[in-house]
Specification:
By secondary structure, the protein is mostly beta strands. It contains two helices and 15 strands.
């Protein structure tokens, strides 16, 4: 990472983040835990309050603790903005359930990294409209394995790296600008640590 690195300290979740959905979100030993694997509470989105620039890099280590459906769901939202020019946090009550489709109506990108039949399935989508920009089935996404994730956005080019290797790349000819970033999961308990945005 280059000069200007911002390290997000996970000990101050109430002041730095807001939560939509989920069973429970908490910090423990410098890790941000997201538990969302119960009926009626199987999705969670945790938003970082400060917006990122149009061009930015994100890094974090994530590890799935458990997933009852074996989906091992690790997702990122970024470049998100609120509806009709309103603030994203100001409209959070409209997304209290964290239902996935609610985010498809807002401008932003989604990176999905999940387990599918023993192999990782990776996707980059653009919203509104849930438009698929890139997809790959490669590597793995296993419970109990820490993964170092890196997301790089430069103009319309989006690169997603896992454990130092580029696993997925997309180019959006009409790129979105800066916005909010969120950690997201479905039917999974996972933790995040060493989160950095530049």
């Amino acid at each position: 990472m280059t000069q200007g690195l911002l390290i997000l300290l996970l000990l101050a979740v109430p002041s730095d983040w807001w939560v939509e959905g989920g069973e429970r979100v908490w910090t423990e030993n410098g890790r941000l835990h997201m538990q969302a694997d119960a009926p009626g509470a199987n999705v969670a989105t945790v938003w970082f309050r400060r917006p990122h620039a149009s061009d930015f890099e994100f890094e974090a280590t994530a590890q799935v603790v458990s997933s009852s459906k074996d989906v091992n769901n690790i997702n990122l939202f970024f470049s998100y903005a609120g509806p009709d020019g309103r603030g994203l946090e100001d409209t959070r009550a409209q997304r209290k359930s964290a239902e996935y489709g609610l985010y498809h109506k807002l401008p932003g990108y989604i990176v999905t990294f999940v387990n599918e039949a023993g192999q990782a399935r990776l996707r980059i989508r653009r919203n509104p409209g849930f438009q698929l920009l890139a997809e790959a089935r490669t590597y793995h996404c296993r419970a109990g394995v820490p993964y170092r994730l890196r997301l790089v956005k430069r103009g319309g080019e989006i690169r997603f790296l896992v454990d130092g290797e580029e696993r997925l790349r997309a180019v959006d000819p009409r790129p979105l600008g800066g916005g909010h970033l969120a950690l997201r999961t479905f039917s999974t308990h996972l933790w995040w640590e060493d989160i950095r945005i530049n």
